[in-house]
Fold this protein.
Amino acid sequence: EAGVAQSPRYKIIEKRQSVAFWCNPISGHATLYWYQQILGQGPKLLIQFQNNGVVDDSQLPKDRFSAERLKGVDSTLKIQPAKLEDSAVYLCASSFTGEGTDTQYFGPGTRLTVL
Amino acid sequence: AQSVSQHNHHVILSEAASLELGCNYSYGGTVNLFWYVQYPGQHLQLLLKYFSGDPLVKGIKGFEAEFIKSKFSFNLRKPSVQWSDTAEYFCAVNADNYGQNFVFGPGTRLSVLP
């Protein structure tokens, strides 16, 4: 079975620029997650989709971050404008049902460097 | 809000040594508990999980973890580590059966010397 796909793998931008990340979950998985992982820390959940609806975006900095999951399949996470502190790995994960006991499957991540 | 702590930032062991990585969480209700592992150059992947039943859970590659509710702990163990166990280990907690509020610990880096 194909895993979670993410692109690009690496991105370098200057502060105040915008950037977008793409994620394609495992086929049939209803739930999609975006995490931010700052160096030396564990992943922090930014937003969780159930099909094409948002179920949790409480930790998403909505003044600069946005995400969408049109048609309930792939998803895009955007940062506009970027700040230095946004430098991190952005991880996408998916799970079959989204229930609390469900296993999440992670993609390779996008490493963002903001200069 | 729940939080997850992991006792050690970096653990260095020799092959065949026993391993125990600590994990504590702050939520007092029903929880689902996970250990994820990230091998060098690879994706995060599930090692094991607990949500009900026997508090001693067995996972892949000989790992096991014990849920001790009274101590709010979910420590990871392996009786004899191998060089290939070198990785970063993350404990994670979900206190909502609908899967929201999934919180990871800061991670423990394990280095196994050959």
In short: Chain B touches chain A through 25 residues (CB under 8 Å). The CA atoms of residues 55 and 69 of chain B lie 9 Å apart. Chain B has a mean pLDDT of 93. The first strand of chain B starts at residue 4 and ends at 6.
